[in-house]
Amino acid sequence: MSEVEHDTRSAMKTMLILLSAGLMFAACEVYVVDTTPPSIPAAIRTLSLDNAVQIEWAANSEPDLAGYRVWVSDSYDGRFTIIGSTHDPLFIDYEARNGNTYYYAVTAYDLEGNESELSRDVAYDTPRPEGFGVQIYDYLVFPATAGYDFSTYSIGQYDDNYTDIFFENYNGAYYLNVWDDTDIQDMGYTASLDEISVAPEAGWSPSKYVEAIVGHTYVVWTWDDHYAKVRVKSITSNSVTFDWAYQVSPSNPELKRAPLSGGRKISRQVPEKQ
Length: 274
What we know:
1 helix
C-alpha cells in the first residue's frame, strides 16, 4: 500500500470516528420538560348581573401562558367544579341564577399543560334581576303610576303597601321619596348602574327623600331587608325614567341588615320638603 493510500484511509477512518461520535452525542442530548406551572391568578373580583356573574382578575405575565380555567362552588371551602376556560382574564358565568350565592376561583395553565393551584381570593357574588327604562310619574298628578315595587318589578300606586320608591315634582324641584320604614341614599354621578356594587353601611337620608338628578345612582334599602339601586336617565316635569337592579336574596352577607320587628309599619305620610 502506497503512502498516499495509507494517509487517505487514515483520514477516512478519522472522519468516520468523528461522525460516529457526533451521532452518539446527538442521541444522548437530553430534552428538558417544563413542569413549572404559571403563577396563581390574583386580584379576583366579581360583578353582579341579571342571572349571570362576571369574573375578572389580573392577567398573568408568563410567555408560555395558554389560558385560564374558572371554577365555582357553593361555599368558599367547598368542592370547586370547573365551569369554563378562557384566554382572557375575564369570564361570565351565564349559568348563575338570581338570588343564589356563588364562590369563584381561577387557575392558569401553560402550553405544556401545567396548571396552577386555585386562586386564594375570596370571590363570591349573588346575581340579581335588573331593568331598564322604567318610567314613573309625579304622585301629585298621577298617583296610580307614581310608585315602584322592586319585589314585583312593577309600577303602581304611590302609597300602595309594597311601594318602595315614588317620584315627586315639588315646585319645580324633583325628588325620589321613600316611606319611613325604607332608606335611600344618593351615591352621586356614575357612568353606569354597575359602578355601585354594594350598598353603603351608613349615610342614609334622614328626610326620606333625595333630589333626583340625571346620571346619579341611588341605593334603596327596602322595608323587608333587600336592597335596590336606580340610576336616573331622564326627568320631565311629570316623570322620571331610570334603570334599576334589585337583590332578591334577603339579608345577603354583603348587605347585612337587622330585620324590622313586627313587619312593615303602615305609614303613608309624605315627607315634607324643607
